[in-house]
Every structure is written in structure tokens, then in C-alpha cells.
Specification:
Blueprint (H helix, E strand, L loop, with lengths): L1 H12 L2 H6 L5 E2 L8 E6 L2 H10 L1 H12 L4 E6 L7 H14 L17 H12 L8 E4 L6 H14 L4 E5 H14 L2 H8 L4 E5 L8 H16 L3 E6 L11 H8 L2 E4 L5 H14 L6 H10 L4 H18 L5 H18 L2 H12 L3 H4 L6 H17 L6 H7 L5 H17 L1 H19 L1
Parallel strand pairs: 2-3, 4-7, 4-8, 5-6, 6-7
Antiparallel strand pairs: 1-2
Helix pairs in contact: 1-4, 4-14, 5-9, 6-7, 12-13, 12-14, 14-15, 15-21, 16-18, 18-20, 19-20, 20-21
Length: 439
Amino acid sequence: MIWDEVLQHIKKEVSPQEFDKYISLMKYDENASKSNLAVFIVPNPYIKTWIETSYAESIAHIFEIINKTKTEVKIEVAKEKQGNKSQKAKNQRIQEQHFLNSQQTFDNFVVGSSNEHAFTVAESAAKRQATAFNPLLIYGHTGLGKTHLLYAIGNFAMEHRKKVIYITAEEFMNEYHKHLKQRTMDAFRDVYRNCDYLLIDDVQFLGGKSNLQEEFFNTFEALYKSKKQIVMTSDKLPKQIQGLEERIRSRFEGGMMMEIQPPEIETKVRIIEQKCRDNQINMDKETINFLAENINENIRQIESVILKLNFQHSITNQPISISMAKNVLKEIQKEANEEIGLEKIINAVAKECNVKPSEIISKSRTSRIVQARHLVIYLTRTLASSIDSMGMLAQKLNMKDHSAISKAFTQISKKIESDENLKRLSKELKNKIQNEKSL
């Protein structure tokens, strides 16, 4: 079976601990899989999230090399047996504690001028529960180490026998809706309001979700009044999160907010050296410097490039070199340019602007929907290679013709130049869309 062959390659790329903890739990669904689709079943949402963010891209790459076909990796959670619901609710906290990434600690977080303040504050929050910085919000662009610091706090706390919950805001929402539907909200609240450390990733996801914000606010208040530590991450400041209630924003701003900035070249060099040591990869100084100077500011892309280089080394038996690095970077950029399409841009803009994708392609003239639609036009003209003409774009967005697209593009371009908030938003969207494809 092809999965057995893929597994042999994966074993060369990850540590034995990671393999046992995550990869070994993946079950290949041969019936649902196709030549261009690999479907896996995992036991719970936490394993699903971790594999999607840490391994899916590398697994897809290995499938592509073996199959000679571009392959999508799809992770699904095993359907829950009826008799297990009660036990699962009781074990919820244990599961959430267990699936912290134990490999990401304060000891292996590479500190530089771009992140040293965030590191210091995170370490203080871990060591001085709810007395130093509470709540703590760490914010910055995608892939700069925010989640690493959350894991580091959680791992430190668990070493000191504290009850820790790590969860993304989206997972928090999914759990909330599930318990609401099953009428087991008491069990839900018992889990999230009885921990020493609540670590929530991507709190910007709360924006525009009023019922979810109500539950989150009450959870926040219960923990804060009990002197429990709350640490969150976001890709933006609270005041920049659209649809975030004033009372929640004020709670966030009443604590410590610390930014992580993109790493400078010297820090990227040390990050690459650290990743090579962690994965037992031999790479000469010249190649390390080349990567530091040519990889964008996203640390996740650094990790992805290193894994791809190690894979190339394992199948060719050639030493990792600048030439090999150039080819890998060229391949990544080509894939990114080819695969940024209109649907991806619409979904990204809809999520950021708190509108529905269907509203963007409707004929609605509501101002916020018009602005979202114009942002789609701007980003499509700037990023997408799959749209051949303005006429095609007009057709897909249900606009009159190419002249309407041209007019909208001119309007939004001028507005972006004069409006700092819109300029920031367009830049963030560009980074998210591009980085998502280059990871």
C-alpha cells in the first residue's frame, strides 16, 4: 500500500517521539482516497489540527513524488460512538492537556530582537501564574512563533502539575456548538472554567460571533476572578478585530499586549541552525545564510523549506547545497503563484471582513459588502494567476463587465493609498493568502 511507502519517508523527517504521538495515530482510508486525494482518519480534533498545521504539507509532497500526481491531504475525525459521549466529556481536559506539542518549549525558542520582549513576558506568565501578566495577548502575523510560546507556557505549567487547556478559538466554537446541541453545557463549562491556564490561539476568530463571545466572556470572567492565567494569540490588535464586543476588547486591552515581529536575518540564521539540530540535518553555513536571506519572514516557511531539503537529500543522496535550496524555493514560489485562485481570495476576504462568500458574489450594494468585493478585485488583480481577464472576473463576481472591474480596482487602489486601516488590511490579507500557499 502506498501509505506504507509514505510512512517510511516520514520516519526520516520526524523524531520518533513525534511519529509515535501523532503520525502513528493516522489511519489511511483506502476506500475514500483517490490518485489525487489522500484521506486519513484521526481520533480527535486536536490531532487533526496538529497534523494539518505541522505535517499535511510534507505528506502531500511525498505522495506527489511517489504518485507523480499532485495530491490533496484530507484529515477527518473518527465518528464518535454513542456510548462514548459521557466518557469523552469527562476526559476532555486530559485530551486537551495531552495534545500540547511537547517539543515546543522555552528552551528551544530562538530569541532575537524581534521577539525577545514577547518571550520574556510569556516566560513570566508561565512562572508567575496570574500575578505577572494576566490576561496576556501575544499578537503578530502568521508563523512568527506565537503558538510556540503558547505551547511553551503550557508545557512549563504541566511540568509543575498545573491543569492546562490549549485550544484554538475555532475549536472552542466547535466544542461550544456541539455541547449546546447535546444540551451538555454544564460539562463544557466544567472543563473550561476549571483550569489553571487557559491558552487560546487565534482569538481574532471570535469577531462577529455574538453568542460565542457571550460564552467566552463568561468563561474569561470566571477564570480571571479565580486568579487563573489566560494567554491568547491573535494576528491583530483587539481594536482591529471586526465585530469584537467592546467589553471583550476592554478586557484584552486591560492586560498585557505584546507584539512578535518578523525575524531579522541574524535570528533567521539561528532558527535554521536550531531546526537542523532538532532534525539531525547537515547543512553548511553558506546554505544556511542563503536561506536566511531569501526565505520570507514566516518561520513556518523556514521549517517547510528545511523539511523539503531534507527529503530531497534523502531520495537523491546528494548533500544539501545552495543549488538544491534555490530549486526548492523556486518550486515553492511556482506552486504559490499557480494555486492562488479566486475562491481562496473570496474566502480569505469574507473571513477577515465578517461577511459571507455568497454575499461577495451577490449584487448587494451594502457598503461593507461592496468594500469586501472591491478588496477581492484588488487582491485578484495583484495575486491570482488563474483569472485570465477582467471580463472573466466580472462574470464570476456577477458584475456588469470588465469596465466595472476596472473602475472598482481604481477606486479601491486609491482608497488603500489614503486609508491606513485599509492599507493594513490589504497587506495582512496578501500575507495570509501568500503564506498559506507557501507553507
